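Support request, priority: normal
Reporter: lab tech (M.K.)
Component: structure prediction queue

Hi team, I submitted a job for E3 ubiquitin-protein ligase from Cirrhinus mrigala yesterday, and the status page still shows it as pending. I've pasted the exact input below so you can check whether something in the sequence is tripping the parser. The sequence length should be 131 residues. Please let me know if I need to resubmit or if it's stuck on your end.
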Amino acid sequence: ITFTKTFVQHYAFIMKTLMKSHESDTMSNRIVHISVQLFSNEELARHVTEECQLLDIMVTVLLYMMESCLIKSELQDEENNRHVVVNCGEALLKNNTYWPLVSDFINILSHQSVAKRFLEDHSLLLLWMSF
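Reply from support: The job had stalled in the queue. We restarted it manually and it finished. Here are the results:
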């Protein structure tokens, strides 16, 4: 439990470091080997979700990652354009650097108690909708 709490406390930093890494494939594999073991246990997943706000961290980091890939849409003239789109040419997307986070998110939401908590948390759902 202590190791998992510490891992979660550093989760945002780990993901931001992954974004900047020149060896994201190697680092991604190492991160996922750890997180899969931690987040596959429902009791442990529920514990860090409740006590360490893991879902909030995951959604916030995912939002941060995707915001770093946004560019102005070219569908309208420049003066009236307020829309942005995801630039699929960004290294974060091309190299699947986001995948460890998405994989962890899928893994943790596979637990019914965690998924229920996610769906019952109004502020978390608003954050997800902003994503």
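Strands lie at 70-72, 84-86. The first strand starts at residue 70 and ends at 72. Let us know if anything else looks off. Ticket resolved.
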